[in-house]
Write a structure and sequence with these properties.
12 strands; binds molybdenum atom; signal; OxRdtase_Mopterin-bd_sf; Protein-methionine-sulfoxide reductase catalytic subunit MsrP; MsrP; alpha+beta; metal-binding; binds the ligand Nc1nc2c(c(=O)[nH]1)N[C@H]1C(S)=C(S)[C@@H](COP(=O)(O)O)O[C@H]1N2; Sulfite Oxidase, Chain A, domain 2; 20% strand; 322 residues; seven-stranded mixed beta sheet; five-stranded mixed beta sheet
Length: 322
């Protein structure tokens, strides 16, 4: 994607000066935002990513299918974590619909040859949204199985041509206290931030969701677009993204910043590494039409049952890099 495309300016209207001025504005916008590097943290220098992940398309797509019972739409859209709209599970769905999702623009920049803006239309340009059934497991011990709509993250990121210095990708949620009343409370260091190592971000299972159950994402699920990293705990699935930045240093994340000993950068689902407050060995599935919210408790699987990602972590001590 050229810068012109990224900025949504028709070719007929463009001059070199316009490109230059827009680029200046874009760079100024980035300069005005706080730095994202994770600082003074013991896991600031993780082992380098293994050389090459080889996942065949068939192996990858087997990850999108499941015969597991789906979580009901009503439960997936009323039992949520979205602290910008309150910290109770019912708060996000009961909150007023104050988030303005049209127009929506994601600024993409940092270590890449073609920084730019990404509108929702740009995102879907050249991609047919696909449906993927993914499990989302929260670190608190509940999980859901949801048919999501969206596009794979890697090809979207590649349009911005990350440089060799792009070792990580940082994501930032909108941080507007007017649209997000929960931001008035200092429960997290707003705006919500997350990050992935570049090879994780490029893995074919990483996904940008714009919908669920064939409908556009409701506000409580992260409208208009959110991340899904199905082999990691739910909190990595940052909602209502407004900024993506390629960075050289491991980026700070909202949960790590609030409680470094409890939330590491990688946050892979792992039944063998407990969270200090919750066992990760089993999970309560929210699924089915049973009148009770929680279905049976089932064993949690390594990488949430996505062995396709194991090679990303070959040689890494997952207790150390939790
Ligand atoms: N911006 C933002 N993104 C967020 C959160 C949040 O509070 N704010 N909560 C996370 C957590 S802890 C989980 S488990 C998932 C929940 O996604 P869901 O409500 O769609 O099930 O969203 C994640 N993304
Ligand atoms: Mo979570």
């Amino acid at each position: 994607m050229s810068l012109r495309d990224a900025l949504n300016i028709p070719a007929s209207q463009i001059t070199d000066e316009a490109v230059y001025a827009d680029r200046r504005r874009l760079l100024a916008a980035f300069a005005a935002m706080p730095t994202l590097a994770l600082s003074g943290c013991s896991d600031a220098a993780p082992p380098p990513p293994p050389s090459k992940t080889i996942v065949t398309p068939a192996q990858a797509s087997s990850g999108f299918r499941t015969t597991e019972e789906l979580t009901r739409f009503e439960d997936a859209t009323s039992y949520n974590n979205f602290y910008e709209f309150g910290s109770g599970k019912a708060d996000p769905s009961q909150a007023k619909k104050t988030l303005r999702t049209k127009p929506w623009t994601v600024l993409v920049g940092g270590e890449c040859a073609k920084p730019g803006r990404l509108s929702l239309d740009d995102l879907l340009k050249g991609f047919k949204p696909e449906e993927r059934i993914y499990r989302l497991r929260c670190v608190e011990g509940w999980s859901m199985v949801i048919p999501w709509l969206g596009v794979p993250l890697g090809p979207v990121l590649k349009r911005f041509e990350p440089t060799s210095k792009a070792k990580y990708v940082a994501f930032v949620t909108l941080g507007d206290p007017v649209q997000m009343p929960g931001i008035r409370y200092p429960i997290l260091d707003w705006p919500y931030r997350e990050g992935l190592r570049i090879d994780e971000a490029m893995h074919p299972l990483a996904f940008l969701a714009t919908g669920l159950y064939g409908k556009a994402l409701p506000q409580q699920n992260g409208a208009p677009l959110r991340l899904l990293v199905p082999w990691k705990y739910g909190f990595k699935g940052i909602k209502s993204i407004v900024r993506i930045e390629f960075v050289e240093k491991m980026p700070e994340t909202a949960w790590h910043a609030s409680q470094p000993s409890e939330y590491g950068f990688f946050s892979n689902v792992n039944p063998n590494v407990d969270h200090p407050r919750w066992s990760q060995k089993t999970e309560r599935r929210i699924a089915g039409t049973a009148s009770k919210l929680f279905a049976e408790r089932i064993p949690t699987k390594l990488f949430n049952g996505y062995p396709q990602v194991a090679s990303l972590y070959a040689g890494m001590d997952l207790r150390k890099w939790f």
